[in-house]
Amino acid sequence: MTTEFTKLSCEDFVAVLASKEPVPGGGGASALVGAIGMALGNMVGSLTVGKPKFADVEEDMVRLKTKSDELQQRFFALVAQDAVVFEPLSVAYGLPRETEEEKAHKAQVMEECLRECCAVPLAIMEACCEAIDVHEEFAAKGTPIAISDVGCGVIACKAALQAASLNVFINTMSFQDREYAENINVKAYAMLDEYCAKADAIFADVAARFKK
Length: 212
Known about the structure:
Layout: H1 10-18, H2 26-48, H3 58-93, H4 100-141, H5 147-172, H6 178-208
């Protein structure tokens, strides 16, 4: 089931997301929002490619669309991967810890599971950053008739970036290896600092074009 979430209808995905099922959760939802955001930028490329008026950016549009397609598929894979890595963690929380041996075993298993559960939302964040970079080019070179979709897409990717970061931080706070956890936090905060600002700038640029 976990590998098939992206095959569900929109209504079914939202229904299972709203249920008490442990997956999908915030990480999977973040990845799906990232895919939707990237698709909006990709649409601008689709509407620009092949138009004589934009022949000078044709190669750029083809390159950007190829990158967008790859990112959309990466986001889909991360929806499934986030569910896969969370399930062992949910099991680990229920491990017994009555004896010292059980406590040590649970701590070891938890640490291993937490590393996996941090890696996926961190990868979602990285994909969101790449998507925001692609939107920057779509905003500069894409057809003006769909420029609003660039703004919609980039702000969706920013939301996905921020949402994924929370799924990083809720896991890093539980690490026993604090040095490892802080290294992950530093990476996540660096992405937030740079790319939230970049997404806001792109959105502002798009919004400014509608002011008279």
